[in-house]
Amino acid sequence: MLDVFITSRVRRKIIVIYAKYPDFKTHVRGLAKLIKEDAGNIQRELKRLEKVGFLTSEKQGNTKIYYTNKSFPIFKELQSIVLKSQRTTQKKTV
């Protein structure tokens, strides 16, 4: 269902991870391994999501760690949409 509103497959996967697990922190390569997508595409989407304020980042040595900005104005609504769409998808597969 999210694919109708968020057309970028990579962005959709990233939003689902960070909305579903708001305390999740990782770097580009770790996320690439988790969602099985190209690190270059992930990095581009992470930068976009950070620019709009959904994600925040911090440097740890030479690595940039991304995590959810829980004070993002529509975070709770977005999280609710993600969780509802996950439930809908699970019901269809059962």
Structure commentary:
The protein has 94 residues and is an alpha+beta fold. It has one domain: Winged helix-like DNA-binding domain superfamily/Winged helix DNA-binding domain (Arc Repressor Mutant, subunit A). It is 61% helix and 15% strand. The chain has a three-stranded antiparallel β-sheet. Strand 2 and strand 3 (63-68) form a beta hairpin. Helix 2 crosses helix 5 and helix 3 crosses helix 4 (39-52). The longest helix has 19 residues, at 75-93. It is globular, with a radius of gyration of 13 Å.
Number of helices: 5
How much helical structure, as a percent, in the residues?
55-70%
According to DSSP, the number of beta strands is 3
What does the largest sheet look like?
Answer: 3 strands, antiparallel
Overall pLDDT level? 89
Distance separating the two termini: 16 Å
The CATH superfamily turns out to be Winged helix-like DNA-binding domain superfamily/Winged helix DNA-binding domain
Oligomer: single chain
Task: List the SSEs and their pairings.
Layout: H1 2-5, H2 9-20, E1 25-26, H3 28-35, H4 39-52, E2 55-60, E3 63-68, H5 75-93
Antiparallel strand pairs: 1-3, 2-3
Helix pairs in contact: 2-5, 3-4
Keywords:
94 residues, alpha+beta, Arc Repressor Mutant, subunit A, three-stranded antiparallel sheet, 5 helices, 61% helix
Outline:
This protein is of the alpha+beta class and 94 residues long. 61% of the residues lie in helices and 15% in strands. The protein is globular.
